[in-house]
């Protein structure tokens, strides 16, 4: 995978997580989503 492609997907992930985080009020859901994002960034 090209570095620019990886960077783009990372920006997309951050943007999506920001939108989701703002829409989600429940702390449990936020924690779950944060774990998913962390796992995705490790891959």
Please tell me about this protein's structure.
The longest helix is centred in the first third of the chain and has 21 residues, at 3-23. The chain starts with a helix and ends with a helix. With 43 residues, it is mainly alpha-helical. α1 (3-23) packs antiparallel against α2. The protein has helices at residues 3-23, 27-42. The protein has one domain (3-42).
Question: Got a strand count?
Answer: 0
Give the helix tally.
2
Number of domains: 1
User: Please, what is the oligomeric state?
Assistant: single chain
Helix content: over 70%
Strand-residue fraction? under 5%
The first-to-last residue Cα distance is 12 Å
The overall pLDDT average reads: 76
Gist of the model:
The protein has 43 residues and is mainly alpha-helical. It has helices at 3-23, 27-42. The protein has one domain (3-42).
Strands, helices and their partners?
Layout: H1 3-23, H2 27-42
């Amino acid at each position: 995978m090209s570095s620019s492609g990886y960077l783009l997907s990372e920006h997309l992930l951050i943007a999506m997580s920001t939108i989701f985080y703002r829409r989600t009020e429940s702390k449990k859901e936020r924690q779950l989503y944060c774990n998913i994002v962390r796992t995705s960034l490790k891959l």
